[in-house]
Amino acid sequence: MSGKENKRFSVGTFCRQGAKELLKKRVGAFCRQYRQNLALIGHQSLGKTTLIHDLLREFAEEKFIPIYIRLEGVKFSVFAEKFMGVLFYQLLKKERLALSDDLDLLLERAVGIVPKTVWAAKQIRKHYEKPEEMEEAYSLLLDLPQVLHDETGRQVLLILDEFQRLEEFPLKNPFLELSNKIMVQKYTMYVIVSSSLHNAHAILNEKLSLLFGNFESINLQPFDEDEAGEFCRDRMKGIRIPLDYLRFIINFSGGFPFYLDVISGKLKSLCLDLGRKEVDEAILLNALQDVLYKDYGTLNQFFHNQYNELLRRGNGSTVGVLEALAEGRRKPSAIAAYLNCTSKEVNRCLNLLVKNDFLVRKGALLQEVDLMFFNWIRYVLRQKRDSFNIDVDTAAKWFQNDIGGLLEGFMSESRKNPALRIKELFDLFDNELVEIENRRFKLMNFDEVSLQTAGDISLIEARKDNKHWVCGVGRYIDESGFNSFIGRLNGKKCLKKILICFDGIDDNIKLKAMDSRFWIWEKESLNELLSLFEKPWVFKC
């Protein structure tokens, strides 16, 4: 592919270099007769579908037939029509023949070049309207790419977006049938996409764990600090945003591209309307009010839809559990006490929230997947529902005051010495059992936590009775800094030894530290722990 072609991926996915390159590599290999099926998994609003559409544009001139189907809770007959319609549409497009959105016309135009495939499609249409023949229709539908290949020699790239929704069709075992087809259809490459992490991983591990044709997973995460900053600055070209405000937006949004896109777009729009070149606090608060608080706000409507769908699946107790979580209650026992209900009822709701990817369990603590959604519950939904005030303008000012308080607290915390922030985090520990980096450990309620800030690496010592933790905190840890830190320990025996490095650690020193039984927390792990205690993330200098 030419350099020009390599730039086809949109600005919306320019930060996803690893995912983009792997997708391109695997589809490129498929063009050369090597198939590796892929699973693209990540929460809503992380850009999965955009990645897929950009990939299809990248390979638009290749000979294979792309079939992209998004499962959207429709009847099986609608899914089957869409599947066949996309297949024949893309085939005629490759053959440079007249196109149509009418399946009958597509079949009529395709019969001259693929009569066997057209005949197979007509057989499918005879079956899928009859409930007792739906299983047969599903099996024949999944066979259609192979029929097309046998007749034309063309490979098929089959992309099923929100593939887990196949289980919503009245079929006995849709994934068993799918796995059977995958194992024998070596000229069809499958890319399955899902926003439902819990269900997707369960299906992959339990129902699509294949002898042949296994799926390689691409797990999308929210943008990190660098990606999010680059993304927002690109969206706001010509408008300056102070670093504190940019970091607040990144933290407040959790790095979700969709939220960053909406907020940065509104910031730029307000600046242009006011003839301003720089975002100030008033513009920032007005932008968040417009997108998150006002009835027509893009994010307000988005979260309302999520909330209503969740309530449809749950029960009345779900509302209370959501609000308790939004208020910062991270333990099931604390939620049960707050709601004055049984632990059994709370755990039933929590299991629903975990299954629907609103929460993850981190040992005994609960962590929101989407912090902005819970902020919306706390500062928008509850305020509008519980307030007696019918003055819309005054209510909006209350929202701005709440978010202004969050901003002020964020900036105050962010300007502290990072080592002091870690020391204060240790002071909050209350014997919680947590899970970080797939390791479970107890956050002891320490009797004393001290901080020494001399040298490149600050030293935190925490004591509970005769048990000690030591923690070294530095930006980048090299050999000199590590050796100096070791010397300051004076050979103390410690229950836990931790190194926290915000900007990385020398590879050789990392191995040396691990040999010395140090646990290394890089910025991502530390920010995960800070989030559990409702503290702002640590950012670069």
Major β-sheet profile: 5 strands, parallel
Q: Determine the fraction of residues in helical runs and give it as a percent range.
A: 40-55%
The secondary-structure class comes to: alpha/beta
The total strand number stands at 14
Question: Main sheet: which strands, in order across?
Answer: 2-3-4-1-5
Distance between the ends: 39 Å
Beta percentage is 5-15%
Could you tell me the radius of gyration in angstroms? Answer: 27 Å
Multimeric state? single chain
Shape: globular
Give me the number of helical elements: 23
Low-confidence stretches: 1-13
| Overall residue-averaged pLDDT value | 89
Helices and strands, with pairings:
Elements: H1 3-6, H2 17-31, E1 38-41, H3 48-58, E2 65-70, H4 76-94, H5 103-110, H6 115-127, H7 134-152, E3 156-161, H8 174-184, E4 188-194, H9 197-206, E5 216-219, H10 225-235, H11 243-253, H12 257-274, H13 281-293, H14 298-313, H15 316-326, H16 332-339, H17 343-355, E6 359-362, E7 365-368, H18 371-386, H19 392-414, H20 418-428, E8 432-436, E9 439-443, E10 448-452, E11 458-464, E12 467-474, H21 479-489, E13 496-501, H22 507-515, E14 518-522, H23 523-532
Keywords for this structure?
alpha/beta; disordered N terminus; single chain; 23 helices; 14 strands; 541 residues
Short summary of the structure?
By secondary structure, the protein is of the alpha/beta class. The chain is built from 23 helices and 14 strands. Strands 2-3-4-1-5 form a five-stranded parallel sheet, sandwiched between helices. The chain has a five-stranded mixed sheet with strand order 10-11-12-13-14, with helices on both faces.
